[in-house]
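JOB MANIFEST
job_type = single_chain_structure
chain_count = 1
residues = 133
[input]
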Amino acid sequence: MSHNSVLQVAAADSASAIEHFAASLRFETDCWDVHNAFENGDPGFVLLDVRSPEQYAQGHVPGAINLLRGKIIASKLAAYPADTLFVTYCAGPHCNGATKAAIVLAQMDRPVKIMIGGITGWLDEGFTLERSQ
């Protein structure tokens, strides 16, 4: 028996790996892809920063709208067509606010993905934040 933790459990077969990894992309996107979408013009989704207004004002992803999870209600989303994709993010991998917001949106039958990495990931990629006045 190997003492190598990586080798103790065999890797999935290729078909299972493809299914798993492809499925994960239905639920998440990353900072690079979000940045690229905004750089190319209309991204085709609404980016929601679900942190506090104070955190948002100190620095947020350019193009993001600040909307706390508790404020995600039907009336706030009424202006967006039902098939609008929402992408949520929070502080970073140590924060589950984006996940909680994604659950709320999914419960409202809204398409949703999470931007993995959040603000931490955005900065790690070398992208800049925008400040609110």
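[summary]
Helices lie at 5-8, 14-24, 31-39, 53-58, 74-77, 97-107, 118-124.
The radius of gyration is 17 Å.
exit_status = 0
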